Amino acid sequence: KLRSVVDALTVEQEVGIIGHGITEVFDNGDEHSEVLHTAPRFRINSLEGARIFRRRKSQLGTSRMTVRAEILRKILPIPESIVIEADEYIFTLAAALSEVWILEEALTFYRIHLGNLYQLSGFKKESMNRKQKSLEFLGDSLSKKLVQSGLAKDAIRAILEPIQAEAELLRLQI
């Protein structure tokens, strides 16, 4: 993984964040890999780029993203109210500040377990409430930062819609 992302960052100076595929491993030993057949590069400074981002952001999450230090310095600190999805805060703002490149291979394994704060199983009111509040804070925080970054309103709307919809769905279920 390190060799692949370091080589990519060395060759492509305008790229600020690199993502890649993932192999999820479940408690029963089953595995599921999610990889792309092409290596897209994009920016979210247009509606088209924001739509690509919406479809491909699963390749930018925890253990799938590498961000240049100078980009992270512009993003940090992460608001403490974002208990879950701090990675989405980072990769969304990194995509607003630089070009994104998603590599074609799965370069990490991620174990899905019952204690996972993001991928909930069953109705657990406390867990659902924590995730709902965190998504609400994430949407609010990103909205402010994306407006400050100068992105077009339609691009911001496209980026925030899934976050806001999931927060609202969870609110209605609780």
Secondary structure: elements and pairs:
Blueprint: H1 2-11, E1 15-26, E2 31-34, E3 41-42, H2 47-56, E4 66-67, H3 69-75, H4 86-97, E5 99-112, H5 125-149, H6 153-173
Parallel strand pairs: 1-5
Antiparallel strand pairs: 1-2, 1-4, 3-5
Helix pairs in contact: 2-6, 4-5, 5-6
Shape annotation: globular
Radius of gyration: 16 Å
Number of helices: 6
Oligomer: single chain
Structural class: alpha+beta
How many beta-strand segments?
5
Residue runs with pLDDT of under 50 for 5 or more positions: none
Bin the helical content.
Answer: 40-55%
Largest beta-sheet characterization: 5 strands, mixed
Following the backbone from N to C, one meets helices and strands in this order, namely HEEEHEHHEHH
